[in-house]
Amino acid sequence: MIHSQTGAAGHETTTETQRLISSRKVEGTNVYNLEGEHVGSVDSFMVDKYSGRVSYAVMSFGGFLGIGERYHPLPWDTLDYDTALGGYVVNIPREQLEGGPSFARDEDPWVDPEYDRRVHGHYGLPLGV
Amino acid sequence: MIHSQTGAAGHETTTETQRLISSRKVEGTNVYNLEGEHVGSVDSFMVDKYSGRVSYAVMSFGGFLGIGERYHPLPWDTLDYDTALGGYVVNIPREQLEGGPSFARDEDPWVDPEYDRRVHGHYGLPLGV
């Protein structure tokens, strides 16, 4: 979750206070692509109840897709927090984001046990444990 | 984060779907003590931006303390998710919870770099990395 421009040094010099962010603040945080363009915002995120790890950021892309409220789960590891931008940076081309698995607000795609695998597959990631 | 009554076997038999919970659903989840008494609910939680781990659940205890909205950060590892209860179980005596570090809604205790250490210390836990 460290932006490549910040690197490991950013972590070492970061205080504990700066490391923590409230769940209510993550919700609504802007997301940018590598070109610095605003591509969406974090609507919510999925937590693994057992490991306590954040598994997915659920991104709202309605703004630029123009198809209303669609929610795109992104594996958390695809996002890097950029302290300068005050938001997340995702290293995924826009076309791949737009074509990624998505759902409407009243849908619960996670009932499909294969959904995890499908999302990770779309972004070329192995399904972590 | 596995309730002792569920144990490791509960993890092995849990599907990926059951493992994930939305941040919006964690907010508001009830918390019980080992006697099964309702002691509060999760108002929000703190995420480590770099590791992607949930560091604290911020509990709202206003109900039983009767002193309005007070927020008690609990190290995430003190909470176990109980699928039968559909909530979290905390193995901390009520007196210790009530006497724990807390703050009001308009306060941001995390600006104090020692706050992490103080909260962990109150609950007898080492400050993780």
UniProtKB/TrEMBL annotation, chains A, B:
<protein>
    <submittedName>
        <fullName>PRC-barrel domain-containing protein</fullName>
    </submittedName>
</protein>
<feature type="compositionally biased region" description="Low complexity">
    <location>
        <begin position="1"/>
        <end position="18"/>
    </location>
</feature>
<dbReference type="InterPro" id="IPR011033">
    <property type="entry name" value="PRC_barrel-like_sf"/>
</dbReference>
<feature type="region of interest" description="Disordered">
    <location>
        <begin position="1"/>
        <end position="22"/>
    </location>
</feature>
<dbReference type="InterPro" id="IPR027275">
    <property type="entry name" value="PRC-brl_dom"/>
</dbReference>
<dbReference type="Pfam" id="PF05239">
    <property type="entry name" value="PRC"/>
</dbReference>
<feature type="domain" description="PRC-barrel">
    <location>
        <begin position="22"/>
        <end position="97"/>
    </location>
</feature>
